[in-house]
Design goal:
- The chain is 39% helix and 13% strand.
- With 259 residues, it is α/β, with parallel strands linked by helices.
- It has one domain (4-256): Rossmann fold, CATH 3.40.50.1820.
- Strands 2-1-3-4-7-8 form a six-stranded parallel sheet, sandwiched between helices.
- Helix 1 crosses helix 11 (242-256).
- The protein is globular and about 45 Å long.
Length: 259
Amino acid sequence: MSRTVVFVHGAWVTPLCWEHFQRRYEERGYRCVAPAWPGDERPVDQLRADPVPGFGRVGVAEIVHHYEVLVAGLPEPPILVGHSFGGLFVQMLLDRGLGTVGVAIDPAPPRGVLPGPTAFRSSFFVVKTWRAWKKVLTMPFEAFRFGFVNTLPDDEQRALYDRYVVPTPGRVFIQDALGSGTRVDFRRPDRAPLLMIAGGSDNTVEPSMVRRSHDRYSGSPARTDFFEFPDRPHLLIATPGWEQVADHAIEWAESRLGE
């Protein structure tokens, strides 16, 4: 049974967002690896003050390749756990034959799954930015409040923004909106089992979007499960109740290892 977990973070944050999951899984005896996107390797305060030159040109292909090389180089096929864009990237890695099981939490949609109106609103500040595909963008607090932590009190929203949020390349959003480089083979019969988790009050990746992604896998004999946590926001991996999400994810993974 695999005892390695690789965490894949999403946009606007760094591997720090996995701090709770990582500690909990290490207590269960797992070796946890939480790599940063290329360009996101430094502490939050440094990334805010001085993004890496050329970071705006980092897109989906570069990020997924980065994780593909890392995962392929591990001594055993790991459990893959991703959040938001990281959830999309986990699906793409599974599609490439990597990982022993995968968990996609609030995953950004692969090509062929359209965003809902609330999701579009949450990322509209990216879309309206001139030449966003070439720029490193900063998420305004109001966008974070609406899209990531809408179920929390104001003081908790601000504390989470200050702890986690960093600039991100606009390119990944434009590519995902256009379906550029985000294709997965929904019918692939030999990929590892996949669990898709939705937050019932998620404004960034609406639960209906996660269900539609899940439904697209119905033509594959490979195991694909869905679970929704009611009344949870997009950042459900680092907001109250994260323990339930972490435990459900790893217990499901343990039950599917070897399938």
